[in-house]
Amino acid sequence: MRQLRSLQEWMQGCVMDPAPADDRAVKKRIRPSATLTPAERIDIYRNMYELRLIDALQVDYPGLFRCLGSERFEEVARVYVRHHPSQSYTLNRLGDRLPEFLPLVEGLPRAAFLRDLARFELAETIVFDEEASVSMTPKGLDESARLQPIAALRLLSLQYPANRYLKGDSEIIPRRRNTWLVVYRPNKSVSHLELSRGSFELLQSLCSGKTIGEALADSKLSERAVFDCFQLWFSAGLFQSASALR
Amino acid sequence: MSNRWNIPDLGFGVGLRTSHYAHILAENPPVDWFEILSENYMDTGGKPAYILDRIAERYPIVMHGVSLSVGSTDPLNFHYLAKLKRLAKRVDARWISDHLCWTGVSGLNTHDLLPMPYTDESLKHVTERVRVISDFLEQPVFLENPSTYLEFTSSTWRECDFLGELASMSGCGLLLDVNNVYVSAFNHGFDAFDYVDRIPLGSVVQIHLAGHTHKGTHILDTHSDHVVDEVWEIYRRVCSRMGDISTLLEWDEAIPSFDVVHAEARKAGDYRQGQPEHAAA
After folding, report:
1. A129, B44 in Cβ contact below 8 A?
2. CB B73 to CB A129 under 8 A?
3. Residues A8, A93: one domain?
4. Which of A228, B36, B162, B210 could form a disulfide linkage to B223, CB 3.0–4.6 angstroms apart?
């Protein structure tokens, strides 16, 4: 298997490397065709590699694509793919590290907003594919219950209302404003709710495994606000079970 | 039956694509079967899984993957294989196929179907892996001839002979992509009819048809258009030699309406010798 291994490592290097391969090495390993040189033949694979991965990122990050524009998005995606080549059998996970990568891209304006936008889009992608759960009703719950959120739920604390940009028609970057979101999929469609900081913290406590009583003790929300929160969250189907029911 | 697994001819199938979901669910078009891209459904519990379940209730499903990487010198990914097996059970897949290729090494994935050098070493390597995969999946695995854009100087086998020997040694079946034969024949300058004539009888369980993009100096397997006449003629030759085999039309770029794709798949009937077995039953 030694020769096969060596050839595969070499070819993968050629395909993933943005610079053309050493011509002598290419001629030694690849036959010319009637119309193409060995180097031109391997370039077909090299060119398709980056385009395929950039396309996959564009599918997962349509908002980022819209905000950056085609040319800039492609530049960013190209650099990202070089730093974080796929290590999975699925392209679905290719962009998982993009939000945290964006602030590291040199000369990228509005990086904090773009990071939030990408975090929101990544959360939507993850929630889209999560396992389906059956939502519960609040019947019979008391303060000793620990609520189990549905699998398709992610909490996001953002510096910008990236959700409003993504779901709106405006191309204007929103002003910085702390934004708390729950992204969820109660059935087949992904939704999100914008929460107040207090309600976000209460939901975060519940999702972390605290009992309802413990979470309420930590919360500064009024009784009325808590009631509204629970009503909204149960009607949205955010929980699938409770561990202690009286 | 025209293959050694006694796998029946399912007739004319269509590759299941997201843009056709609504039409299929609403109209129940009279398609003989659907082929799914395995990786599109292995990791989702959301809408795609829900829709697939509805479609699998109504139509026979065949699974076709792009990430098996049977030719890679990296260890097999049993996590992937376990998911593949689970999905096959879920949709009651008639069979599972992938490509004779490798997608990456050293833990990386190019997500491309990279060509193998056709050597004795490759043959031994792929044969061993096919056996392990088939044992794990508890069913034969079927491999497709890839469309390729280069040939290695180290290759000592012709691709068609390599596939035939692989089928014989490993027990794998073949998915003969007739468009890929045409594409590779142009790119490498071999005779496509000779290629299909050399594929062993009884080893082919499925045929793929698709369109491609001619770039002048080479052809790219883009699945972006109608099947060209030359490919239809190769298909006719395969059917006349091997009998009627489950035939699938792939369309992946600039995908037209479902009716256009389905009509293209049904054209295959004009080139066949007889009727699919299930239609005659």
Report:
1. yes
2. no
3. yes
4. B210
